[in-house]
Predict the structure.
Amino acid sequence: MIEVKNLTKSFDERIVLHTINAVFETGKTNLIIGRSGSGKTVLLKNIIGLIQPDSGEIFYDGRKLIGMKKKELNILRREMGMLFQGSALFDSMTVLENVMFPLNMFSKDSYKEREKRATFCLERVNLLDAEHLYPSEISGGMMKRAAIARAIALNPHYLFCDEPNSGLDPKTALLIDDLIHDITVEYKMTTIINTHDMNSVINIGENIVFIKEGIKEWQGDRRQVMTSNNQALNDFIFASDLFKKVKEAENDRMI
Ligand SMILES: Nc1ncnc2c1ncn2[C@@H]1O[C@H](COP(=O)(O)OP(=O)(O)OP(=O)(O)O)[C@@H](O)[C@H]1O
Ligand SMILES: [Mg+2]
């Protein structure tokens, strides 16, 4: 479980996050949603310690991130897997070498064992066939799967994904969502995903934090999202006609 308490962050006097309080649960896909520029990436960067908040606290299963000693911080960092916008694979390495990279950096296991672990992760994301190909030789969806395999190579307790679906067609995006959800449950990770993809909200929104202009407006799950009376949330979710129709159908069903 990751807890964010009273987190505030500003850049050049402009407040980007205002006293955010949120809990992200273990074994669940926790979503941070909101319009472009609402502060999702800045919040995620604060959570992983890439930038420092002006005030507030972040707890990883009770461990306080801010002010953590270097040794403890190094241990925590190894418990984090990351999947950032774009898949950020190394172009000069094969898929297998990409997945082995964090193991080569941090694991003391023998080459054979590291290779075995990387192969296991590639198998888990159904990409073993492509292990000897280079990123330029595989599709966008395959790149995401390779990046997921790399993110889970060190068996992380916490997984962070910033817009994991960007650039994918809707069907492939759903497959990637399902994969992230399944490994979250399987490995009991605390997973936080930034998204503005409504399909993801409906598909894997087990715990959703909605941010508007740096303020947490609402928190709930995918069922509650469809029936909430929060105006700002509805304006965001039902900006598309399709979701407006789904909500109307849901309301009719309840009457
Ligand atoms: N390093 C920085 N210096 C100054 N301002 C920044 C910095 N990083 C982010 N911001 C500002 O903070 C605000 C929130 O940005 P953020 O990237 O978190 O938005 P977002 O919700 O992730 O948007 P998107 O959906 O487009 O990725 C924006 O107005 C952005 O310009
Ligand atoms: Mg962002």
Remarks:
- Strands lie at 2-11, 14-24, 28-33, 55-60, 63-64, 80-83, 158-162, 190-195, 207-212, 215-220.
- The chain has a mean pLDDT of 92.
- Residues 1-79+157-179+188-255 form a domain with the Rossmann fold fold (CATH 3.40.50.300).
